[in-house]
Amino acid sequence: MTRVANSEILRQANEATYRAVAQLPRSEIYLSSGILENKSYKRHEAIGLMRAEADRKAIWQRFHDEKIYETGAPDDTLALACYRALEEARVEAVANIPLPGTAKNIDYFLYDETRRRDLSHSEAGDVLAMPLVLRRWARAEFLGMKLDVPEAWHGWMQNHLSHYAEKLSAQIQNQKTYAEITQTLLADLGFKKQMDEADSHDDPFSQIPPDVPKMENDDDSTGAQIQSADELIEDNGEETAPADLGQMMEAGFNPGGAGAQEKSGKRHARPEWIHALESPSDYKVYTREFDEIVPAEKLASTDEMRQLRQQLDEALPPLGPIITRLANRLQRQLMAQQQRHWVFDQDEGILDNARLARVIVNPTHGLQFKQEVKGDFRDTVVSLLLDNSGSMRGRPILMAALAGEIITRTLERCSVKTEILGFTTATWKGGRARDAWHRDQQPATPGRLNELRHIIYKSADTPFRRVRNALGVMLKEGLLKENVDGEALTWAAQRLAKRPEARKILLVISDGAPVDDATLAAAPAMYLERHLQQVINTIETSGKIELRAIGIGHDVRRYYSQAITIQDVAALGQTLVGQLGELFHK
User: Fold this and answer.
1) Minimal CA–CA distance to 509: which of 465, 575, 413?
2) Which of 483, 430, 514 is nearest to 73 (CA)?
3) pTM value?
4) Per-residue pLDDT for 185 more than 90?
5) Theoretical Cys-Cys bridge with 108: which of 48, 118, 216, 248, CB 3.0 to 4.6 Å?
6) The last residue of a domain, from among 158, 185, 200
7) Are 277 and 493 in contact (CB under 8 A)?
């Protein structure tokens, strides 16, 4: 039996187990076996993780009420992550009574998570580590297991969580009361202000600090402020991406549209791999009406961009010397590989010794100089795709912005064109797309249910100096929401496919899995993750784009075959230089 056939048998067995545990024998479910091909895991480890993931999804389906969950769910990203972590612990505790075997399987998943997400360097009270700490604490309390949290957190947990242990344990069978206690706990941890603001303001942009001037007509329907494609012509004549995905095919979301036609009027056949990206067999979108592609400059006023850029600059001085040193090292490495050639018979330049005899014979003969010409570096373009989801809020998004600056400034010195893209959603929990689905009586399997927002911080043909302030928009309060990674990669790959350069590199910086609550609530388990894996596989097997990923605080190797993880901004420069140096050394 082939390895592929064996993997398919394991996948189908896993689905059967899911249906049995979830008590949904007729449910439509697809559990990917992609982890079996992940070379970072041994075969038995991958099989164990497959089973653990199936059990996690199944008990969530069986013992979790989504309506109760949504009623109490906060809008603040970090608060929501903590809220979900505690609900996952409750579900696992409830499932352990009739299904004690699931806890053992999930232990395998948590062991792997512990290995991938090292908390040993986190400080007590670190909000980015808090969801994971809360989940481990609650699970230890409910199931009597060992508390797998660094000692640095023990005092913090004693002061902030100990008096909630008995209250939560007593209500694990009552999700509504448990959720209410969870809300109180989160408020005590300092999330009350964020949740209150979310309840009192429908518009996430209204949460901008009072010292930051608001945009004119600033509301969540930012698409109304975005110019049409005709208005987005750069000074150099380049047409940037349009505002509405549904209107403009050239952005790459709808195949076969007018955007595929060149300005000359000639239509070129779309590569097979691009068609596969645009028309996945088992992934669909309920509506693209509210999706948008927007230049970063349209998301903030000039004054606000200047202030946000200042925030970014304040983070740069401590890193300045090391960034300069690393950038210079990379530049020397790249320039050494850059192709050069001589142009002869020039009026000025370096004296051409080979032409001296001709000058002696005929002193009136000119053009005895030569010049060295640097060719474009291996005819290369680099696209940097940054995760702009809510979980990147704080230090991670700052790291991502710095990454964009380091890469762009360094490669621009070497005449390598670079673009910086970001991806998020325009609203929380589906927004107008989900509302449209509700108005249509909620048809089954709607597919993706959210308003995508894809952001162009810098196009490949635009010098960095012209968009320097735009990069600071990444730090804008209220910008970071949810993330649909598969469609973002499709968009970035489509942009690269249209470029004339022979070599195309796509570098993704992310902090983990795709998250879109509205879609995940209405779609089969792992719907977005499965699509992401399909997109990655299509890009990687096409051989047309070199795809790499950097995980910010999270291991993304389960998705990308070429990926590394960084835990701290101090390692950012070294990591980027190493990745780029390795790529350009090929």
Assistant:
1) 575
2) 430
3) 0.52
4) yes
5) 48
6) 200
7) yes
